[in-house]
DNA sequence: ACTCTATAAGTAAACGATTATTTACTTAGG
DNA sequence: CCTAAGTAAATAATCGTTTACTTATAGAGT
């Protein structure tokens, strides 16, 4: 391992950028903070990625590729797929957050990476009384619902602690059952 | 109508801030742009609201109060409520966007205003096999699903144009039917 | 009615701190 | 020793906030 490693530096920048943008968004994300977290300097970011815009897009694409790899499309069993997505977002909020931010701040860039992934799911949606794309948006949305709900709201409206693993597991069960019913059993 | 009107100026600032923050978020929102849109100057914003943080919170609360007034809670008919929410967000994306941004950028401030509103819905959830809070998060999420889906994704995955009113109406029907089934008919 | 004035409403400009981006320079390695 | 990798520092623009100032308006005292 040489002291100078372009590939490794690029990867460190990408990882740091993903963490930064998922946490603070594009407008709130700081280039010099990414450089410090990646143990390099801003000049390298511009050398490898061109600018803040391109860095964000690269981080977004990277995150969605990881999700696609960790949670493969399962068009034949959407309920199981929803459960997988739920677990994935529960173990790490990064992907959900950067995707949300992309949707709000850079809607053009938001579509492309998700496109390939979700298209595979909508391709074969089994036998449902509903339109395939409607089902897809519903299922994808249901899998995120828990994490999009303000925690303070859950704390006050629910009798149980939303951070309790048992509570989360209960919601997961409700999710899988709901998608099951939604897709026509 | 006097040339000097504190109440009117305050209202203009609040409306301009809501539009600005819904469009660009907290970090991306600019105080001087709000001042210009409100036909006043930044000093007034600090006189009336104290600072950017408090201005955002005031705009968020204002937006959710408008939503609560326009789409009253209907715990007895969640499917109809979901349809109302869908129509509301379809006619104006402001509330959905600023709420999403608040959830990402200011999670502490995000909960409170929504709290009262959604608590009323979850209070009486009729007869459902699922937990009341689970149902609430599902229904609220389903009503937003269409607008949280990247338009580019819909354009490529769906055979129909997602901006076509007929297509939107079809999704609305699917939404109401789904919530109906979800709440145990 | 009529000033006079205290105070609220409004404005312009500057301050100080950041921020994305670039220029100029240094160093390691084949 | 030449090129790619890495670094430091400057640039130029921007942004939230404050200071210092001006103007209108309502009400008290005559």
TrEMBL record, chains A, B:
<dbReference type="InterPro" id="IPR036271">
    <property type="entry name" value="Tet_transcr_reg_TetR-rel_C_sf"/>
</dbReference>
<feature type="DNA-binding region" description="H-T-H motif">
    <location>
        <begin position="30"/>
        <end position="49"/>
    </location>
</feature>
<feature type="domain" description="HTH tetR-type">
    <location>
        <begin position="7"/>
        <end position="67"/>
    </location>
</feature>
<dbReference type="Pfam" id="PF00440">
    <property type="entry name" value="TetR_N"/>
</dbReference>
<dbReference type="InterPro" id="IPR041467">
    <property type="entry name" value="Sco4008_C"/>
</dbReference>
<keyword id="KW-0238">DNA-binding</keyword>
<dbReference type="InterPro" id="IPR001647">
    <property type="entry name" value="HTH_TetR"/>
</dbReference>
<protein>
    <submittedName>
        <fullName>TetR family transcriptional regulator</fullName>
    </submittedName>
</protein>
<dbReference type="InterPro" id="IPR009057">
    <property type="entry name" value="Homeodomain-like_sf"/>
</dbReference>
<dbReference type="InterPro" id="IPR050109">
    <property type="entry name" value="HTH-type_TetR-like_transc_reg"/>
</dbReference>
<dbReference type="Pfam" id="PF17926">
    <property type="entry name" value="TetR_C_21"/>
</dbReference>
């Amino acid at each position: 391992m040489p002291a100078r490693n372009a590939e490794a530096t690029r990867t460190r920048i990408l990882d740091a950028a993903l963490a930064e943008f998922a946490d603070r968004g594009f407008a709130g994300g700081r280039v010099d903070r990414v450089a410090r977290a990646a143990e390099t300097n801003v000049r390298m970011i511009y050398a490898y990625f061109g600018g803040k815009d391109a860095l964000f897009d690269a981080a977004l694409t990277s995150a969605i590729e990881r999700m696609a790899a960790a949670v493969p499309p399962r068009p034949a069993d959407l309920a199981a797929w929803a459960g997988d997505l739920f677990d994935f977002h529960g173990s790490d909020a990064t992907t959900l957050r950067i995707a949300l931010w992309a949707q709000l701040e850079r809607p053009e860039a938001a579509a492309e990476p998700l496109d390939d992934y979700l298209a595979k799911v909508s391709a074969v949606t089994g036998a449902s009384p509903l339109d395939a794309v409607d089902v897809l948006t519903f299922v994808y949305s249901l899998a995120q619902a828990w994490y999009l709900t303000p925690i303070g709201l859950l704390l006050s409206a629910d009798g149980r602690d939303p951070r309790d693993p048992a509570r989360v597991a209960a919601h997961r069960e409700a999710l899988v059952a709901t998608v099951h019913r939604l897709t026509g059993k």
